[in-house]
């Protein structure tokens, strides 16, 4: 079930809110758990079984790790927990990738399994992993209430698309959290704005990307239009979903950490990855990079650590070689920046911003390709190779058709709208307090019209 869908917005979510707020305090986590399981099982009930088994294993291993902490048995149970989580993820996400890779190398034709990918398995697997590792480290106590742990893992606002919420961040909130009008108002505002980013900008740009792929009149400029549109599309799609998750979290009394911080204003690739998908970046930092030694090792091992982290980051995103290449592409750029490139970039703000956006745009062409062959063809065409004409009438038509959305996306990817809104609200507080609810309701009406019309409404990160 998509957040940006009529069933969720007008049936599921209102029912959940009513049940949650009429439930007594001791039962609120139970309501969240039950409704989250319904949400997850809405389209494919069998996937819920996989998640429940993963949660049960995480719960049992957490108790055992906590009980024997400081002993060899604690390490054994941690290894079993990590192993079971990674094996589950590997079976459902990577089996066919390994088989197809083996077939390519060996020349054999081992049949693929056709195993379906459970939605959100990468997200909830990482949450369970971080929980059991933190129990082993002594950062948190093992959760003895199975409902509380299950509610944490399965909580529907962040279940299918993150942010990756760590148990340590909401441990206390699972026991006691505040519910008040101000938090709910903040949550509703954040949710509606995130929904607007998704429906009005991301979906429109997604349509343009699909139109390009189906076109027989591609040109160099049309390739660039596609690349820029997809770069904006993935940002507004994913950050919009994160905004909706954070907003719903506030309504239910949870404070989820931010996941995006205007990454397209970055002055280096290093800075970009401090601002993009922050919950994933910090997860790999704390559970892979630092345990490997981080940068407190020899330079060769330091660079090895960077490549390991970025190989895993790419592989986490998808079971295909283009995702692995995408991850290693960023590893190379980060190493180059650390070695010598950054000192030259710091000399010019304009140069470093152009540099970042050019490399990020190219990276997302790789990311969205069906395979590395397509990625190579697209990038080559963007730079005039492959007998592609520079200009086409179709490019001009779609540039004119989507100019307003692209401009809104470019401006909206900067802090400018938030800064202007903040200044206006501070100067005309009484007026904006009246106008804001009207604007939000109007925005909901417009977005509902889009959804009723059956407009293009996919979500990229379902594949992860």
Structure write-up:
The protein is an all-alpha fold and 464 residues long. The protein has two domains: 6-177, no CATH class; 183-463, no CATH class. Helix content is 74%, strand content 0%. The chain has helices at 6-22, 28-40, 45-67, 72-106, 121-137, 146-154, 156-159, 167-175, 181-214, 220-251, 269-275, 278-289, 299-317, 321-345, 349-368, 372-382, 393-412, 416-427, 429-452. The longest helix is centred in the first third of the chain and has 35 residues, at 72-106.
Summary?
The chain is an all-alpha fold and 464 residues long.
Strand fraction band? Answer: under 5%
Total helices: the number is: 19
Report Rg.
Answer: 23 Å
* Low-pLDDT regions: none
Task: Provide the helix percentage.
Answer: over 70%
Mean pLDDT: 93
| Topology order in helix (H) and strand (E) letters | HHHHHHHHHHHHHHHHHHH
Structural domain tally: 2
Number of strands: 0
How far the N terminus sits from the C terminus, by CA atoms, comes to 15 Å
Identify the notable features of this structure and list them briefly.
single chain; 464 residues; mainly alpha; 19 helices
